[in-house]
Amino acid sequence: MNIFAKLGNSIEEVRIRTMRIFALIALISSFFVFFAFSLRLVWQEEAQTEDHLKSFQGIAEQVYRLSPRTRLEISEYVTVYYGESDFTEQLRALAPIALNSVDRLNYEFKFSAEHFIQPGVVAYHFAFDYQGNNIQTYITINSFKMDLWDDNWNVLMMISTLLMMFLIIVLRIALKRVFDRLMLPISDLSHQLREQASENFTVPAHSVDELKQLTDHLNQYSSMKDRVAKQELMFAKYASHELKTPISIVLSAAELQAMKPDDKDFQAKQRQRILSATNGMKETVEALLNIVKQENASTESIVTVIDEACIDLSKYQQMLASGVTLSLEIAPNTRLNMPLTLVNMVLKNYIENAIRFTVQGSITVRISSERISVCDSGIGLHSDTTIDHGLGLIIVSRIGKSYGWQSSLLNNRDVTGQPGCLALFEKQC
Which GO terms describe its cellular component (predicted)? Predict the structure, then answer.
């Protein structure tokens, strides 16, 4: 019979299978203990029987010297034969027995009308001299009446049975503790994963350390998944807004062109609006494609030489408040590991944010191989000044992660002691 029949690999089925294996181990262990003790007991029984029979040697010899005879009943079960004349059929089956030795006749099954078991006989053969004659003497005992058979074997059976029960109980308790500490928390964690009942996965305090570490990692991955999902949603939201705005400009300019077909200045102005919006949309699409391309590439060597001819700040001049100046400083031999479109995307978000919150003073753009900074003299960081213009900080941060840069906003007062905000885009080591 297969003890593993119809059992799968669920935790409960594994528990049942393991319990059956432990029960089988307990049964086999008890059998081997019983077998080993049985051999020991049989050997001990033989030795004690021999000593027991030899202990009657002096009595048998002394009684015969007092009154010679052919047979002596020492007790109900111990008989002494002087010579072989009064031997029973069993003893005749034993003869000849070596001098000063013990021999045994095993049990005989007599399936006669009475259907009984013929007990065995153990005999000890020795000899002594009496009046010039050598008297061959046999001391016999009935095997059924040996004390060892009645007591020790019962004790042995009891010990083996108790040992088997003890092993089953101990192994069951140990197995239950193992499953409580290891398997049940895994089952509970599996249920949480399947049902998604809570935001954070939990396991009992008594769980093993590795399972706690696994749970912590699952919670981290879950949080990271939610965070990435939110970032992707915001990314799509801002990208959609950045693309919808120039499309709306193109559509409105095209409709306005149809209204004044003969006005050349008006037509030129609308064409310029269309070109400007189209170029902006092209730059946005290129920026998005470059981000995705870099995120999907394991390694890619990009070197962009930056000089004043590459950076055009003229389009921001008309956005400045009255009296605010915008200046650009580029360090010699500046080289960046990202496309120019992404550099312009970072500058666009930083500069437009600075323009938005600067009503007087100046805005300074500094670019080097290790850092891009936009410093303004505006109102500085405030709880209501979250950057949400264009692709905003989400895209700037995304660009930084893709190319090994970090974006941060600081109060200028904390750095230089002057009012305003400092936007930093720094290369990581």
Answer: plasma membrane
Domain shared by 255 and 352, yes or no: no
Count of C-beta atoms within a 10 Å radius of residue 238: 19
In DSSP terms, which residues pair with 66 in a beta bridge?
none
Question: Both tokens of residue 412?
Answer: 């200028």
- Using CB atoms within 10 Å of the CB of residue 93, give its burial: 0 to 12 exposed, 13 to 18 middle, 19+ buried: exposed
Tens-place pLDDT, residues 201-258: 787 777 767 777 888 888 888 777 777 777 677 667 767 777 787 888 888 888 888 8
- The pLDDT tens digits for 159-208 are 777 777 887 788 777 777 777 767 777 777 777 777 765 567 787 777 76
Q: Do residue 37 and residue 173 come from a single domain? A: yes
Same-domain status, 177 and 50: yes
CB 82 within 8 Å of CB 140: no
3-state secondary structure of 422: strand
pTM summary value: 0.45
- Residue pair 355/317 in contact (Cβ under 8 Å)? The answer is no
Say whether both 156 and 35 belong to one domain.
yes
Q: Which of 64, 80, 51 is nearest to 140 (CA)?
A: 80
Domain membership of residue 222 as a residue range: 209-296
Residue 227 tokens, joined: 């965070």
Angle between helices 11-54 and 184-195 (to 10 degrees): 170
